[in-house]
Amino acid sequence: MIPISLVSLTVVVLLQSINVQALYDVPGTRVIISLMVNSCEDGKRSICSNCTTFSLCLGGKSIGEIPCGSATPHCVQGDVEATCSNHPASECDVVERPWSITCPSVGVLPDPVHCDHYHNCLERDSPSELFQCPPGYVFNTVTQTCRSRSVQKCAESPCRAANTVVPFGPSHMYYVLCVPRKESETVEQQLEPYIFRCPERAPFNETSQACEYRCVTQGNFADSLDLNSYFQCYRKDDGGFVALKKGCQKDGDGMVAKFNATVGECIP
Fold it and tell me: Mind telling me which PROSITE patterns this protein's record contains (predicted)?
């Protein structure tokens, strides 16, 4: 007969092993997004190639893909032309299911509506790559990967009022702009959150409603979201620091210089 103490010890070890495994972060799987099948062969001048981009039609064929801008990020197909709109097409409604977003910056962003999805942005103002976490996992805003629901809560949309800016998730590196989706008396039920991220070392301040860079010493430091700008840190009389965001200047050819973190200055 196996001693009870040995059985109890085995159970404890197994539970500890499960808890440790649950803490491991895992990557998601990319989701290939497709809109309704649109064709240039039926006389259209332009078509929606997906929920956030459109293509021009020439000789019955589509040429290139043009992303909708951040002001009107959704592509809506018309009888003859595709247009960019404030509101998504019915099959692209983010309330119904997750879709690609127009990237506000480069980097990884959580989906503000579906906590088991996240976006990888390779270029600003371009469609994001959509990823889905494995079953039972949700996106972790701190590690920027997927973590088990047993140890990670689902981050829900914080939108409660129209035209407000509020933090998203516990990391303070993300925030959302809450925009009314359409005219309605129940505005709270019709808010669409637009996700943004702060630069590294610049957490979102709920009081000032802005990302504020935290200086640890004097000098010039890179803006992780903008290669053409940087943060200048200098010491105040009381010993604290002040951070100012600076932009790189244009050269003689009109090209904006890029900040070089190694030398701490803008280089053409």
Answer: CHIT_BIND_II
